[in-house]
Design a protein that fits this description.
About 25% of the residues lie in helices and about 25% in strands. Strands 11, 12, 13, 14, 15, 16, 17, 18, 19, 20, 21, 22 and 23 form a 13-stranded antiparallel beta sheet that branches. It has 14 helices and 26 strands. The longest helix is centred in the N-terminal third of the chain and has 32 residues, at about 200-230. A hairpin with a 6-residue loop joins strand 1 and strand 2. Among the domains are: about 10-110, Pleckstrin-homology domain (PH domain)/Phosphotyrosine-binding domain (PTB) (PH-domain like); about 295-365 and about 385-415 and about 445-530 and about 620-685, no CATH class. By secondary structure, the chain is an alpha+beta fold. It has helices spanning about 85-110, 140-145, 165-185, 200-230, 270-275, 315-320, 345-350, 355-360, 370-385, 430-435, 620-625, 625-635, 640-660, 685-699; strands spanning about 5-15, 20-30, 35-40, 50-55, 60, 70, 80, 295-300, 340-345, 395, 405-410, 445-460, 465-470, 475-485, 490-505, 510-515, 515-520, 530-540, 545-550, 560-570, 575-580, 585-590, 595-600, 610, 670-675, 675-680.
C-alpha cells in the first residue's frame, strides 16, 4: 500500500509512423486503476486525451533499449512509452505493475466462480431479450455458465482400464463439440453493444477453453500410448484400434508414404477429403527421385503479395490469438490465422533465395580467395530481398514432414561475371566445352543449370534441408534450418538455427555461413518485417572471413533494414572490404584499394525458376500439396483456405500419432542425418570425388 501512490510526469508516447514520438503528460490514478494522459500539465484539469484501464493489463519493459516500455491493455489498446532514462522507466513500470496487480486481483475477488452448471449460451432472441441485456456489473464469465466439478474429498480415482478408453473418447468428443459451440456462440455476438465478441472476458474464456481441451487431448494420447505399449505384439494383423480418430487399420498403417485411405466425411468438400486421404493410383515411395530438368518449365506464377494494411477487420482474431500467448512463448505449435499466409511454402521461399544464379555461379570465377569471399558476401546479401518478397509481413506455409520442392535455373554463360580485369571466362574454351555438355553429351549448351531440392526432414522440431548445385562449375551449397519462433509482446521473432556450407570444388574451398533472425513488427497495427542479428561467413582453407550485422530499427530515429559488414584476412587481421546499406534497396561495397561499388537491388535482374507442371509433381511436392490453399487465397476465400489448411495439418497429426503407436520411424527421402545436421544424399563433392577416383583407376 505504501507504493499505491498517484504519480504523474512527462513521457514520450509513440503515435504512428507519420507523427512519431510526442511528449505527453501522464497521470497514474491508483484509486480508479487508470492511466490517463494529457497534451501538457496545464491541461490536466480538462478531459484526458486518452485513458487506459489497468485491470488485466500487461506492463512490458522493452528489450531493445533501457528507456522504452509498453502498456498493453486487456481491451487490446497499447501505449508505447519512453522515459528519459532507465531509472525513470523503472519507477513508472514498478508503479504501474503494482496498480495493475491490485485491480486485477480485485476483479477476481468481486466475481467468484459460479456453481456447477453446464456449458450454455443464454438466449439471444431480440434486442430486448434478458439474455442480451446485461447489467453493467455483470461480467462475461457470469453470462456464460461454465461448469466446475469437484471430486468428493478422500475418494480415490479408479484406475482407467483399457476398455474404458472408448467411453473416454466419446465423452471427449462431446466436450469438444460443446467447446466448438461455445466458441461459435461468442464469435456470433455483435461487435458493439453491451456484450460483444471482443469482450475481454470472452476472449479469455475462448483461450482457456481451447487450452483445456488441448491439455485433455494430450493426456488422452498418453493413455493411448501406454495401452499400446502394453498390448504390443498381442494384436493380430488387421485389428482396428477403435479409440483412434480417425480409425485406421493397423494392417494399412503409413509406412512413410504408403497409400492411405481415411473415411470420407460427407459434410466436407471433396477437395478437403482428397487432402486427408491423398488416395493416389500408385504407391508413394520414399526412394530419391531424379528430376529431369527438361520437364521443368519457366515459372509463370507471379503471386504478388498484397500488403496486410491495417488489421482492424481481423482484430478479434489477433486478440484471440494474443490471449493465448505469453512473452517468450515458443510459437512452433501455435496455429496462426490463415489471412497472414503467403501463397508459397517455406521450402519454396528457400528456393527464392537463389533468384540471382548469375551471382551464385560467379563466386567460383573469382581469381583470388579474397575476391571469391567478397563475391560470396555480395551474393549472400542480395538473396534476402527476393527471398523475403521485400518487407511484407506475411509468412509462408509451414511445410508438412516429407514435403519436398524441386526447381532449377538456366543462366546464359554470357551473363555470369568473369575474372576482374579480364574479358575472358574464368575457364579456357576447351574446359568450358567439357563442363557444359548436356547430360547425354549430345550437344554443347550455352547456359549453366543450377538445380535445387528442399525437404522437410523433421516436424518437431521443424527442420528443413535444402541443396543446390551447378555441375558445370563444380559448386554446390547444402544447408539445414530449424525455425524457432517466439512471442515478443507486440512482435514475433523467428530464429533460423542451422548452418550452410558452400563448396567450390575447383578451388577445394568450403564456406560455412549462418542466417539472420526475422521479426514481424507491429502485429496489431500495420505489420512489417525486418531482419536482425549477426551472421558469420568463414573459409578455413583461405583464412578469409566475413562478419555481417543486420540492424533492427530503434524506436526513435534510425533507418529501416540497415546492414553493415566487413571481410577480413584472419592471419593479418586486415579488412579488405566493407559493406553498408539496406538489404532490400541499396548496398555499398568499399574495397581496400579505395574503389567503391554500388548494388541497387531494386534494379537487379531476377531469373525465374523452372518448375514441373502440377500434373507431373508428386503428391508431397509443395505446390501440389498446397494447391487448394493457394487457390483459395488467390480467390480471397479465407474460410475455404483455412479448411484446406486444417485438413493437411490434421492428416499430419494423425500420421504422427500412428507412427508413435506402431514405433515406426520416419525415413527421409533426400537428406541424411550427419551429426547435428542434415546432408543431401548425393552431394556434388561425393560424385566428383568418385568420378576422379574412377578416372585415376582407369589411367
Amino acid at each position: 500500500s505504501d507504493h499505491m501512490e498517484n504519480i504523474s510526469g512527462y513521457l514520450m508516447k509513440y503515435t504512428n509512423l507519420v507523427t512519431g514520438w510526442q511528449y505527453r503528460f501522464f497521470v497514474l490514478n491508483n484509486d480508479a486503476g487508470l492511466l490517463e494522459y494529457f497534451v501538457n500539465e496545464q491541461s490536466r484539469h480538462l478531459k484526458p486525451r486518452g485513458t487506459l484501464q489497468l485491470a488485466g493489463a500487461v506492463i512490458s519493459p522493452s528489450d531493445e533499449d533501457s528507456h522504452t516500455f509498453t502498456v498493453n491493455g486487456a481491451s487490446g489498446e497499447q501505449y508505447k512509452l519512453r522515459a528519459t532514462d532507465a531509472k525513470e522507466r523503472q519507477h513508472w513500470v514498478s508503479r504501474l505493475q503494482i496498480c495493475t496487480q491490485h485491480h486485477t486481483e480485485a476483479i477476481g475477488k468481486n466475481n467468484p466462480p459460479l456453481k456447477s452448471r453446464s456449458f450454455s449460451l443464454a438466449s439471444q432472441g431480440s434486442a430486448n431479450s434478458p439474455g442480451v441485456q446485461r447489467r453493467p456489473s455483470q461480467n462475461a464469465v457470469s453470462f456464460f455458465n461454465v461448469g466446475h466439478h469437484r471430486l468428493p474429498t478422500g475418494k480415490r480415482v479408479p484406475i482407467m482400464q483399457p476398455d474404458h478408453l472408448v467411453d473416454v473418447r466419446e465423452m471427449m468428443s462431446q466436450a469438444e463439440g460443446q467447446q466448438r459451440d461455445l466458441i461459435r456462440s461468442i464469435e456470433c455476438l455483435p461487435v458493439s453493444g453491451h456484450l460483444t465478441s471482443l469482450d475481454q472476458d470472452l476472449l479469455m474464456l475462448k483461450a482457456t477453453s481451447m487450452a483445456t481441451m488441448n491439455c485433455l487431448n494430450d493426456c488422452f494420447h498418453i493413455l493411448q500410448l501406454q495401452h499400446a505399449s502394453q498390448q504390443k505384439g498381442s494384436l493380430p494383423a488387421g485389428t482396428t484400434i477403435s479409440w483412434l480418430e480417425p480409425k485406421i487399420s493397423l494392417a494399412n498403417h503409413f509406412k512413410n508414404g504408403a497409400a492411405q485411405n481415411f473415411p470420407a466425411e460427407i459434410n466436407k468438400p471433396a477437395t478437403v477429403r482428397e487432402e486427408q486421404s491423398i488416395a493416389e493410383p500408385c504407391q508413394l515411395t520414399r526412394e530419391p527421385e531424379e528430376i529431369n530438368s527438361d520437364e521443368e518449365l519457366e515459372d509463370i506464377c507471379d503471386d504478388k503479395e498484397d500488403d496486410l494494411g491495417a488489421v482492424e477487420e481481423q482484430r478479434s482474431v489477433i486478440l484471440h490469438l494474443l490471449s493465448q500467448l505469453k512473452l517468450g512463448m515458443d510459437l512452433t505449435r501455435v496455429v496462426l490465422p490463415t489471412f497472414i499466409l503467403e501463397k508459397r511454402s517455406l521450402l519454396e521461399m528457400y528456393a527464392d533465395f537463389m533468384s540471382h544464379p548469375d551471382l551464385f555461379i560467379g563466386i567460383t570465377n573469382g581469381s583470388t580467395p579474397e575476391e571469391r569471399m567478397i563475391r560470396f558476401v555480395e551474393y549472400y546479401l542480395t538473396s534476402f530481398h527476393e527471398g523475403r518478397k521485400g518487407a511484407i509481413a506475411k509468412k509462408p506455409y509451414n511445410p508438412i514432414i516429407g514435403e519436398t520442392f524441386h526447381c532449377s535455373w538456366r543462366m546464359p554463360k554470357s551473363n555470369v561475371a568473369t575474372d576482374v580485369g579480364s574479358n575472358l571466362p574464368a575457364h579456357s574454351t576447351s574446359e568450358q566445352v567439357t563442363l557444359s555438355k548436356d547430360p547425354e553429351g549430345q550437344k554443347d549448351l550455352d547456359y549453366y543449370t543450377v538445380k535445387f531440392v528442399a525437404e522437410q526432414v523433421s516436424h518437431h522440431p521443424p527442420v528443413s534441408g535444402f541443396y543446390a548445385e551447378c555441375v558445370e562449375r563444380k559448386m554446390c551449397v547444402n544447408a539445414h534450418v530449424w525455425t524457432k519462433s517466439k512471442f515478443l509482446g507486440m512482435s514475433i521473432g523467428v530464429t533460423m538455427v542451422g548452418e550452410g556450407l558452400l563448396s567450390l570444388l575447383e578451388h577445394g574451398e568450403e564456406y560455412t555461413f549462418s542466417l539472420p533472425c526475422a521479426y514481424a513488427r507491429s502485429i496489431l497495427t500495420v505489420p512489417w518485417v525486418e531482419l536482425g542479428g549477426k551472421v558469420n561467413i568463414n573459409c578455413v582453407k583461405t583464412g578469409y572471413s566475413a562478419s555481417i550485422n543486420f540492424h533492427t530499427k530503434p524506436f526513435y530515429g534510425g533507418k529501416l533494414h540497415r546492414v553493415t559488414g566487413e571481410v577480413k584476412q584472419n592471419v593479418t587481421n586486415t579488412v579488405v572490404c566493407r559493406v553498408q546499406g539496406e538489404w532490400n534497396s541499396m548496398l555499398e561495397f568499399t574495397y581496400s584499394n579505395g574503389e567503391t561499388k554500388y548494388v541497387d537491388l531494386t534494379k537487379l535482374s531476377v531469373t525465374r525458376k523452372r518448375v514441373r507442371p502440377l500434373e507431373k509433381q508428386g503428391p508431397f511436392e509443395s505446390r501440389r500439396l498446397w494447391q487448394h490453399v493457394t487457390e483459395s487465397l488467390r480467390d480471397g476465400d479465407i474460410d475455404k483456405a483455412t479448411e484446406h489448411k486444417r485438413a493437411l495439418e490434421e492428416r499430419q497429426r494423425s500420421e504422427e500419432r500412428l507412427r508413435a503407436e506402431t514405433e515406426t520411424p520416419w525415413c527421409t527421402k533426400y537428406f541424411l542425418k550427419e551429426g547435428d545436421g542434415w546432408v543431401y544424399h548425393k552431394p556434388l563433392w561425393k560424385t566428383v570425388s568418385a568420378a576422379q577416383t574412377q578416372q585415376t583407376d582407369t589411367n
